[in-house]
Amino acid sequence: MFYYVLKFVVLGPLLRLLFRPRIEGLEHIPDDGAAIVAGNHLSFSDHFLMPAILKRRITFLAKAEYFTGPGIKGRLTAAFFHSIGQIPVDRSGKEAGQAAIREGLGVLSKGELLGIYPEGTRSHDGRLYKGKVGVAVMAIRAGVPVIPCAMVGTFEIQPPGQKVPKVKRVTIRFGEPLDFSRYAGLEDRKAAIRAVTDEIMYAILGLSGQEYVDEYAAKAKTAQAEEPKRFPRRPR
Predict the structure, then answer these.
(1) N or C: which end of the chain has fewer CB within 10 A?
(2) In this predicted model, what pLDDT tens digit does every residue of 86-99 receive, in sequence order?
(3) Sheet holding 35-39, edge to edge
């Protein structure tokens, strides 16, 4: 109930008023039945803007840190994400990835929309990074279509580290559903799930126009963070 109050009465109308999102390809979202919406991830605002413009409910796999923060702020954040039906995902280790897949398949088994960011984390520089293969495993195993989605302009309104987003118009694009039924039964084959994941990422790339980096975002973030340690500035 709280989800729909936020979506249609409180948060949804407010976001539409402030950011006036241009919406393209909304007809590609099915009126019913299970499907995966796979998008790029540029900003914390993505969590709210895309669900706000969909008629149907969509459940996202959200990082566990949103549910485990300390203090009053942490408890309020966890309560908020729980109330809108988001599922916490521990992103550390192989077993955590399998748990996320099980949770996602559970959503799809109910005939619902599942939202996922294949990059696994927000882009720290606005570029599109290599996708993780969990989205492919779920799409093949559940036998559902994948609708690529591109958020355009959300990095500019709220880049990493900026708490309050700028009020500026954004664009949300949905592409034609991708059918991976030809890979049925191959979700355990590395080559197959890599091929499916790459096809999804290139579809997102075509919608977003971002620069593509054939590297995992988390690895690129770590390398950037360690750069000053390896090459410290010399005192003048």
Answers:
(1) C
(2) 777 766 666 767 88
(3) 22-24, 171-174, 146-152, 35-39, 113-116, 58-63, 87-89
